[in-house]
Amino acid sequence: MSIETELKKCKEERKAEVDKYYQTVLLTLGIKDYLDSKCRSCRFVSAEPRFFGIQSSDEVRPDIVLQYESNRGALCEIKTSLPFIDGYLLSSLKQLEKYSQEVIGWDTPDRKVEDHDVILFCHAIDSDRVIERIRKWLNDNSLRISKKLCVCEWSMIASPKTGKEVILVKQRFGDTSCSELDRALTENILVDAETIGIKYEICKFTRKEPPVEYVMQELWLNIFPEINARVEDFETSVDKILKIAYEYYIPWSNVENEYSQIRRRWIKKALDVLSEVGLAQSIGNDPERFKILRGKQIQRDILDYMIEAHCRLFISHLPRKPVLDEKAKQQTSLIEFKQE
After folding, report:
1. Domain count, the chain
2. Are 146 and 253 found together in one domain?
3. CA distance 200 to 22
4. Alpha-carbon distance 232 to 68, whole Å?
5. Average pLDDT, rounded, for the chain
6. 111, 243: one domain
């Protein structure tokens, strides 16, 4: 495989990872926005709080928490992609078993509800395969979920009317304890991705670690200008960037223990990669201080630039076979033939 082919493949894969992460953010925000504005008996409580099993004391961290008027709720898991190999897929779905235990942490006076559902949001690419396996594994007890289970699929599609990207969410398996939510999911929930992205522009992270290029882009476009408004080189530290980022990227709700914010180690990793691709420099022997080379003129999309630079760096470290001229190839082929 040529270097240019490897570079193209790497760029496509990294761009896809960045897109998938942001789509997950938009999906979460889209569900929140829809429920906040159009659903009376089901409300979006929080993203990624900490729950604890009442009997086991196990920590449970759902992606989304919903609560119904009937003192019931739902713990939801969002999957951008799921493994194709059955063993890995089952292992991934085992997470839902933890969701089906009685947990404490709800937005109620005693932090409990009478009962709750489990909802899995999986991408449309995976939904048919995953639902087929879930049916099988529930029947043979390979997967043990004691609560009501609902599987919804989601995807980003172009609106037939406007051509803009919309998030489509629909129910595919099982149901919930909330008839209003069931009706909405059966009729399909459509959310305008661009509108959601603008409305919640300072909500950019989930609990899951984002691709490093995603963090690099956010720092470059949103956080660095907050530290130094002029387009020039400047010095800063990980702690200073973290402080500014925590003020810029707010949590998605005011529930205690919500963690939908940027992390310190993500920032440090992004700064290290920015240094490796020539957009930052470490200062002296202090691994926490950096000079940001923001004065560098980049005449193209910054994310595309960062992805390509990172991919070139990655490819340059791959071990390679020596390139032989035609005579050397013939001699090598002759040696290999004689050895056979």
Report:
1. 2
2. no
3. 12
4. 51
5. 88
6. no
Q: What is the pLDDT of residues 51-82, one digit of tens each?
A: 999 988 889 989 999 999 989 999 999 998 89
Last residue of a domain, one of 174, 199, 224: 199
Is 181 a residue whose pLDDT tops 90?
Answer: yes
The Cα-based distances of 110 to 43, 61, 95, 101, 113 in angstroms read 18, 19, 25, 17, 8
Q: Are residues 43 and 190 in the same domain?
A: yes
| Torsion over CA: 3, 4, 9, 15 (sign) | positive
Residues 291 and 218 in one domain: yes
- 3-state secondary structure at position 64: strand
CB 152 within 8 A of CB 171: yes
Residue 305 one-letter amino acid: Y
User: Collapsing DSSP states into helix, strand and coil, what is residue 329?
Assistant: helix
Phi, psi torsion values for 234, nearest 5 degrees: -155, 160
Same domain, 50 and 190: yes
Query: Which tokens in the block code for residue 310?
Result: 């990172």
Flag whether 245 is in a domain: yes
CA geometry: angle at 145 spanning 144 and 146, to 5°? 115
Among 199, 226, 253, which residue terminates a domain? Answer: 199
Closest to 305 (Cα-Cα) out of 20, 22, 14: 14
* Pairing, β 286-292 against β 280-283: antiparallel
Residue 335 has pLDDT above 50, yes or no: no
State the helix-helix crossing angle for 238-248 and 264-276, rounded to 10 degrees: 120
Round to whole Å and give the CA distance between 239 and 274: 17
Q: Residue 85: which domain range?
A: 22-199
**What confidence category does residue 254 fall into, taking pLDDT thresholds of 50, 70 and 90?**
low
Residues 195 and 217 placed together within one structural domain of the fold: no
Neighbour tally for 179: CB within 10 Å:
13
What's the Cα-to-Cα distance from 50 to each of 46, 84, 105, 106, rounded to whole Å? 10, 29, 7, 10
* Cα–Cα distance for residue pair 41/183, rounded to 1 Å: 12
Residue 47 has which token pair? 């993203």
Would 5 be classed as within a structural domain?
no
Q: Are residues 152 and 270 in the same domain?
A: no
